[in-house]
Amino acid sequence: MVxxxxxxxxxxxxxxxxxDAFKIGKGYNEMLPFPTAINENPxxxxxxxxxxxxxxxxxxxxxxxxxxxxxxxxxxxxxxLFHGDVxxxxxxxxxxxxxxxxxxxxxxxxxxxxxxxxxREDPSKILAMMDIVSQFDDDSLMTxxxxxxxxxxxxxxxxxxxxxxKLLPEIQSGRLxxxxxxxxxxxxxxxxxxxxxxxxxxxxNEFIINTPLRTSTKWWIGNAGHATISSVFARxxxxxxxxxxxxxxxxxxxxxxxxxxxxIRIGDVGAKFGLNGVDNGWIQFENVRIPATxxxxxxxxxEGGVYSSPIKSPSRRFANILAQMITGRITxxxxxxxxxxxxxxxxxxxxxxRLQFGPTSTGPEIPILSYPTHQLTIxxxxxxxxxxxxxxxxxxxxxxxRTDEAEIHVLASGLKAMISxxxxxxxxxxxxxxxxxxxxxxxxxxxxxxxxxxxxTFEGDNTLLLQQVAKDLLTQxxxxxxxNKFTGTLKYLGKNTSLLISGMNPLTTMRxxxxxxxxxxxxxxxxxxxxxxxxxxxxxxxSKNYKQTKDSFAAWNQSLEILIHLAKAHTETVxxxxxxxxxxxxxxxxxxxTLKKLCQLYGLYIIRQDFEFFRNSNYLKKGKAKAIIxxxxxxxxxxxxxxxxxxxxxxxxxxxxxxxxxxxxxDLYENICKQVGGNFTRNNYLNSKL
Length: 690
Ligand SMILES: Cc1cc2nc3c(=O)[nH]c(=O)nc-3n(C[C@H](O)[C@H](O)[C@H](O)COP(=O)(O)OP(=O)(O)OC[C@H]3O[C@@H](n4cnc5c(N)ncnc54)[C@H](O)[C@@H]3O)c2cc1C
Fold this sequence. Notes:
By secondary structure, this protein is of the alpha+beta class. InterPro entries: ACOX_C_alpha1 (IPR055060), Acyl-CoA_Oxase/DH_mid-dom (IPR006091), Acyl-CoA_Oxase/DH_mid-dom_sf (IPR046373), Acyl-CoA_oxidase (IPR012258), Acyl-CoA_oxidase_C (IPR002655), AcylCo_DH-like_C (IPR036250), AcylCoA_DH/oxidase_NM_dom_sf (IPR009100).
């Protein structure tokens, strides 16, 4: 095993030679409890490389667009502009990110490779583009691109009508930089309670935009330092009546991009944990007049001084407005999976090169990847990254087809919440697996963690997104309950009703043989049972709390714990289901057998993480739980033998890795020293002492 890990890496002559490695490998192999490889017929390194190619192709099905990827790689290989210099100050970073955005605007959008209109025409092009951009060391670029093109640009495209669409070529080319001003100092998640006002003036056919209170100040607004125009979410007031929140185009700077327009105040919200290349700011409006045509009027318009909307219910209208902004959420799931992969590549390559301790105090040491504690941490994460790929491919396809907006909404919300949370926690662990080297800025973990952490908050706070998933499931449950015929997302409930009533067969709860536990059927049954039970329990809990409180808001809040559990369980059920479907469809035997093991590990690991539920529900007897723990360990050990191949199969672009711990050449210590280099700069204190 050690040989396999090490032979994929270039040897360092100063430490150990290939013969020594072989000796270590042989010696350690004898200690390994489960020395089997993924491939039934282990082949040489060349065939493994082709496996990585095949895995890479599998993970981007439906959004390949090699022309877009190649062009982006060409643009981003200019290291004078696209480099992750950790020593740049905030202002320099912001200028650099702007230049990077403009390079992509000109190289990709101006050439017509991707368009904002692809949001509807061909979203797979946008996903392919983001799949490369999200691998760049500094996610400020990805965030700024999303803000300009897929929040501001998407607002113009999705909330506006034809007269607004003529701005799209200017926006995507970077000639018209815009920001997306939704959040306020006093309100983030509760967008329906925003306070900024847009009051209609019938005399001039204009709206007057105002920030009535300090708490109404637009806050966190990305691109606020560079934008000349903003899509502002404000309450539409007409004839003294509040028609609730709509979106307006409000110019904020003169065309020179520097001077503010009258009535506009803008400031910097300052340095952040990460993403310091993004110019997040605050904006206030004082009697700023805009033509009535600047209302993005797809869902509500003012003609001849009269307000009208194709959607009568204000809450449904508002939900429709927000639903249009789903692209950001989807790209976060895609981008965050890439971040998880970057973290995994670094930790795995590092762990295969880092030697600590050995069987004897004087003899050779072994790679830290050989330790079961390491394997138990890394391998379920690698399996998760592949599971996320499977569901991403499915989500991408559904987003492309757009046949069931409700399903896309639930899936995109659940996945964004689950993947960003999982990745944030995982990266902390991966950093720890790299020891002190992980803590150095040069490891890249600091930047990865800071980036992914905010993904839990923006584009919808995770707890609120999971509540939306739970709410949708309960609504569907209520609708289909009377007919006892569950369809679509809730099909699994139909299969489980008798089980939930009569309870589990005691023989099944005890069955602990490998064939049973490793079968896809067991994994699916477990996931579906858990979701079904939690759905019914959630409905009962909300109903019981309502009976007690007679207040639906209070009843919902008192049920939050189980509702969040339900949303997570449901999302994991969909992930496992789609992962299995994808594997069953896979024709290549090598890919299928590799993914099968990863899926077994992913499924069993989820069950292991939620033992409390499964044991309390009498789904698993003690012996079965113990057998699962043992199998998880075995799978981790087996899969770790091919860990380097598996992370190479992620298909991350090597030229965007930017961490000396995770470079493919394996010159670990030389790369670290090269990157750190230099001497201490003498500071004033030292100078004064000398
Ligand atoms: C770096 C960065 C960039 C951003 N860029 C932009 C931008 O360009 N444009 C823009 O408009 N906005 C932007 N935002 C704002 C972002 O969208 C909001 O921060 C986000 O929507 C969350 O809102 P909040 O910060 O007000 O959190 P809150 O809504 O105040 O949430 C705080 C906490 O309370 C919890 N909570 C709130 N309500 C409930 C509830 N009902 N049930 C249970 N728990 C609850 C949340 O889970 C969370 O843990 C950005 C934010 C950041 C950090």
